Amino acid sequence: MELRALRPYAWALALGVFVPLSWVFELIVGPGVGVFAAAGVGIIPLAWFMGLATEELGKHAGPGIGGLLNATFGNATELIIALFALAGGLHEVVKASITGSIIGNILLVLGLSMLTGGLRHKTQVFSREASGIQTSMLLLAVIGIVMPALYVLSTKISSGPILEGMSLGIAGILLAAYVLGLLFSLRTHRDIFNPVTEAGETPRWSVRVALIILLVATALVALESQLLVGSLEAARQSLGLTELFVGVIIVAIVGNAAEHGGAVIMAYRNRMELSVAIATTSTTQIALFVAPFLMFASLLTTRVMTLNFEIFELVSIALSTAVLAAVASDGRSNWYEGVLLVMVYAIIAVAFLFHP
Which residues contact 15 (CB under 8 A, 6 or more apart)? Predict the structure, then answer.
């Protein structure tokens, strides 16, 4: 392959050095801040390659299957990290990472996209209908995760078979909503989501190359996630941070970094509709698919994870959803709206930093 062909991947290949570096730190120093930081940075380019491979496979398969592939693998990195945390009994970190992914996509990703695109283009437009549907799906998820917390607040029972059964039932409903949402966006009303499902681009990679890169990147993400989760507790104590802050801010940013960059680049190229679609679709995937899937996956561990989120997390998600509804209502964006979204995210991040 010519050097010119490698140029678009230069930054990812450079950051890929942190993958073997994290293994060296693990062997020489052991779990700690060094391993946690190196593994976190190493996951970013791997997640980006996973996204590229999935996108290339989608181009070969056509818009329908391509949309399904993107929907399925869109949050694979976050899911892998969360599964290792779940196996390690870090349920609060798992729920915090779900919260962080939701508010991060809505506020940080969308905010940076609007800011970056708005600095180059005075006003950008996107589909109000598509973003409105995504917001409605997110509202359903908010209602679903609020119910267990209300049960705990009203009964003072924070564990037990009733709460677990309620969480499983709600998780099943959320998964059903996600599957029906795929049917809606990929089949019956795919014209509404045209920028997402009808890319119409010529593949750059063959199916074989895309599959190999996807498999290798996924395997390496799994290894890095194991190191990340294994060093999380030691790093957290060394830095004096809470599990809530690490999950909501640090782990969520690491898991979503590749998608963050893609959305910002699309906005810079004045493809704001695609940028908004990346942010909102990723958010609904987390809320309607990843969270319920992890709930059912916890049945295979020694302790069942419930959907009883901390009240601080619930309010943050609800406020973020309300902000999304307000910003997306007119189908137009500018740099100042982007600044406001980023500032809201910063306020929430500071609050979580000082939350005990």
Answer: 41, 42, 44, 45
Q: What one-letter code names the amino acid at 137?
A: M
Residue 45 has pLDDT above 70, yes or no: yes
Query: What is the percent of the chain where pLDDT is above 70?
Result: 90
Per-residue H/E/C for the chain: CCHHHHHHHHHHHHHCCHHHHHHHHHHHCCCCHHHHHHHHHHHHHHHHHHHHHHHHHHHHHCHHHHHHHHHHHCCHHHHHHHHHHHHCCCHHHHHHHHHHHHHHHHHHHHHHHHHHHHHHCCCEECCHHHHHHHHHHHHHHHHHHHHHHHHHHHHCCCCCHHHHHHHHHHHHHHHHHHHHHHHHHHHHCCCCCHHHHCCCCCCCCCHHHHHHHHHHHHHHHHHHHHHHHHHHHHHHHHHCCCHHHHHHHHHHHHHHHHHHHHHHHHHHCCCHHHHHHHHHHHHHHHHHHHHHHHHHHHHHCCCCCCCCCCHHHHHHHHHHHHHHHHHHCCCEECHHHHHHHHHHHHHHHHHHHHCC
What is the per-residue pLDDT for 72? 64
